[in-house]
Amino acid sequence: MTAARFSRLRLFRFVALVTCIMSMLVSTNTARAEPGTQSELTAITGAGAGQVLVSPTAAGQGTFVAQVTVNIHNAAPNTAFAVTRAVDSLADGHCTSSVFATVATLTTSESGAGAVHFVRESALVSGTQFDLMLRVIGDGTVLESECMTVTVK
Q: Is 64 found in the same domain as 119?
């Protein structure tokens, strides 16, 4: 093996190692949905499906901050949808609240797909748990999540 080829091989291994380390560092800083804080969206009326991801973060340093992502597909094209939520303060995995409030909106594309990402904050303190259900409503369609239990970081 020539010295130049050996040097290139060492450089390649070094770059690969640095890339792996950087990807691990980047992935530890992103918000991720914990088990129980992600749900499929199922059509109760109309057409469509999707997914909800609720990722509580420590950004509030003892109070509730969460990044929320809602994705829908196979829904009515070029349609505005309201993302609504109901909170149940008794965290038992059974969403009983029927009071839904709008927290975001999204508009679907010509193919019936849409997404929205937003941040929710409240004065709930670290360790508090609550149940959460989301509905996406528009043009006669209602997509509903499962009941999710969220823990404030």
A: yes
Decide if pLDDT at 28 tops 80. Answer: no
pLDDT in tens, 111-147: 999 999 999 988 888 888 999 999 999 999 999 999 9
DSSP 42-83: EEEESS-EEEEEEEEESTTSSEEEEEEEEEEESS-TT-EEEE
Residues 45 and 1 in one domain: no
Q: Could you count the other beta carbons within 10 Å of the beta carbon of residue 91?
A: 16
The pTM assigned to this predicted structure is 0.75
Of residues 135, 121, 106, 133, the one with CA closest to residue 46: 135
Which positions ≥6 away from 94 have C-beta within 8 Å?
A: 88, 131, 147
Cα separation, 83 vs 69, in Å, equals: 10
Q: Residue 48's domain spans which residues? A: 38-151
| pLDDT for 91 beyond 90 | yes
- Considering the domain architecture, whether residues 70 and 136 belong to the same structural domain is answered as yes
Asked if 105 and 135 sit in the same domain, the reply is yes
CATH number, domain with residue 98: 2.60.40.10
